[in-house]
Specification:
alpha/beta; five-stranded mixed beta sheet; 18 helices; 30% helix
Length: 627
């Protein structure tokens, strides 16, 4: 059957799908409109499933009100702010808010499972899946709240163009037959002070902007919002400062002229009073002691797997975890082995060596699921048992210092992997009521939120309550001590997605106080230059591992040069010396690039995959960012 433009137009109007998708659906179903609608529905589900792993951290909040007694607010996330500004998306968010206004659902799962008001033959989740297919990005209805006030009224408003939605629930009282709502307001005699530490920086440095809000009033003043205008440093005009910390790490964009720069600061208290001041920082010429941070060429070494330079530490604890015949046990690699191969690494063009965590790990031997007779150990370093001690399998404190010194003598840097999210299996007794009197550092039934990225255990590993200030401060003290004691240059930060932002900001602040040149590259699963989940230019990470890059590499070696060029041009514009990306082709957390080339798409053989891997590497080492 011939497919006409009128048929495509009718199907587009029925479904909202793209023109080419509608044309394909009609061709596949020989022009049957009902079958074409069903084809698009199933195709949309498949597309939604493929997009489900992608980060949706942008989006909008929408509030809606009914007769001053009932209100609802929803947050719907998209991958990019471009979609958030799209009328199609905005209309959808409004529809979700109307759904929330009428819902009786107790939680988000029940909300997604209920019938969609616009089409009761579908659930809210079904409608979401269809909208993902139409818009072309992963979308998520993250949360909703419905408020019913019987004894007063509710009002609603939004901030920041829909980024924050608010419901105000006001109870009222009747006095002399007149209804009133009351609000206590206090104006403080207060001021804010701000300083930058250190007071002089170059474009490879960070500095801490420290705020102090002071009042002589007997009533406690509280900062609820604080921000700084970093325009003169080439950064955001509204850099947010965490009011729990009252300090944040700032950066200087390359190309800003030398001289004294002004940083206007504004703090808002709990009653909406504003306090302003101006901090000053001096921009100086780059004190060049080698390469810049955004010029790092990074070599990742799983220390235990790299090279055995000292066999005396192989079974350092006498527990039998040294078993080279088994894939997940210790194999003998150590600091001495790394040091002995630095000439080789330098000849490769490497200037930064990233090694796995160096702290003491559990010595328990765990069964390896699905592999009879095989076992797991903490050879990789991500199952810590004591953050204050060096893993003896890797060497002595003296050997670690020798490795650092040998790298620095060559103008190279050491990057150490660190974990703040969790400890190793079976360490509950070690971290509960031990380091902090009367307090568990690990989550229990009261501090766990099932399914939450930050407040639930990852792979059943004991999860630290990092939002607790005492726990946070102790973890930071443990990890920063390695920098103070060994002159380590950089951290690669594990599981960034699973720790609260306040902890990362406090961690960055502490490291900047120790060494303004110190940098961190974070592993935030799924992140890319356009989907950094607020980790860059916010006083947290200086760089993120780029989970988009290997997809672009596959597209590149498949001949899609224009597509890759367009992506790289946008990526180049989105990163700079203060916020860059680490470009990887393969990692220990994902299928390797060669494996993907052999098992996805055209499925080439091993020899062809190896050749294409080399082509992909040319893109990696020449693209902007950190290969």
């Amino acid at each position: 059957m011939a497919i006409t433009a009128a048929m495509v137009k009718e199907l587009r109007e029925m479904t909202g799908a793209g023109m080419m998708d509608c044309k394909k659906a009609l061709n596949e179903t020989n022009g049957n409109m009902d079958e074409a609608v069903e084809f698009l529905r199933k195709n949309g589900q498949a597309k939604a499933e493929k997009k489900a792993g992608r980060i949706a951290a942008e989006g909008l909040c929408c509030v809606t009100l009914k007769d001053d007694k009932t209100a609802a607010v929803v947050e719907v996330n998209s991958e990019t702010d471009f979609v958030a500004k799209n009328a199609e998306f905005q209309n959808y968010v409004t529809a979700v808010a109307q759904q929330a206004l009428a819902t009786s659902a107790a939680d988000i799962d029940a909300f997604l499972a209920e019938a969609c008001n616009a089409d009761t033959s579908k659930t809210v989740k079904d409608a979401l899946v269809e909208k993902i297919a139409v818009i072309g990005e992963n979308l998520s209805i993250r949360r909703f709240e419905k408020v019913v006030e019987e004894n007063g009224c509710v009002v609603t408003y939004t901030h920041g163009g829909g980024r924050i939605g608010v419901i105000v629930d006001a109870e009222t009282a009747v006095v002399n037959d007149t209804t009133y709502s009351a609000y206590t307001y206090t104006a403080f005699d207060a001021d804010v002070q701000a300083e930058v530490i250190p007071s002089e920086i170059d474009y490879n440095d960070n500095a801490v902007l420290k705020l102090t809000l002071q009042s002589d009033e007997t009533q406690q003043i509280e900062a609820v919002e604080a921000y700084a205008d970093l325009s003169e440093l080439g950064q955001s005009s509204s850099f947010a400062i965490d009011t729990e910390l009252m300090e944040g790490t700032i950066a200087l964009k390359e190309g800003v002229s030398t001289g004294v720069k002004n940083i206007p600061v504004t703090v808002k208290d709990q009653y909406g009073n504003l306090y302003t001041t101006t901090a000053h920082v001096t921009v100086k010429d780059r004190d060049n002691d080698g390469f810049d941070w955004d010029e790092a060429v990074i070599y990742f070494a799983v220390t235990d797997r790299f090279f055995d330079g000292d066999s005396s530490n192989n079974d350092a604890y006498g527990t039998g975890t040294y078993a080279p015949a088994e894939g997940s046990m210790y194999h003998g690699g150590d600091f001495a082995g790394l040091e002995s191969k630095l000439d080789y690494l330098q000849k490769l063009g490497v200037n930064t060596v990233w090694i796995t965590p160096i702290v003491e790990n559990i010595e328990d031997t765990l069964n390896c699921d699905g592999y009879d007779g095989q076992h797991n150990s903490g050879y990789h370093g991500y199952w810590a048992s004591d953050f204050t001690k060096l893993n003896k399998h890797l060497g002595t404190p003296e050997e670690l210092q020798e490795l650092v010194d040998a790298l620095h003598a060559r103008g190279m840097k050491l990057m150490v992997d660190v974990v703040l999210n969790h400890a190793g299996y079976g360490t509950e007794d070690a971290f509960n009521n031990t380091y902090i009197a009367g307090k568990s550092m690990l989550r229990d039934e009261f501090t766990t939120v099932k399914g939450d990225d930050k407040k639930d255990a990852l792979s059943s590993l004991p999860d630290f309550v990092t939002e607790d200030e005492q726990v946070r401060d102790l973890l930071i003290a443990w990890q920063t001590s390695w920098v103070s004691n060994y002159d380590i240059d950089y951290f690669r930060v594990d599981t960034v997605k699973h720790v609260d932002d306040t902890t990362w900001k406090a961690f960055k602040n502490a490291l900047t106080y120790i060494d303004p040149d110190f940098k961190m590259i974070g592993e935030y699963a799924g992140a890319g230059y356009a989907t950094n989940a607020g980790q860059l230019r916010t006083g947290q990470m200086d760089s993120l591992l780029d989970f988009d890059f290997n997809d672009q590499a596959i597209s590149f070696v498949s001949g899609n040069l224009s597509t890759v060029e367009n992506f790289m041009e946008s990526r180049n514009a989105g990163i700079d010396n203060t916020a860059t990306m680490g470009s990887f082709l393969s990692s220990h957390d994902e299928d390797g690039l060669m494996y993907r080339l052999m098992n996805e798409g055209n499925c080439v053989d091993a020899d062809k995959a190896y050749a294409l891997m080399k082509v992909a590497a040319t893109l990696q080492i020449t693209a902007k960012g950190q290969p």
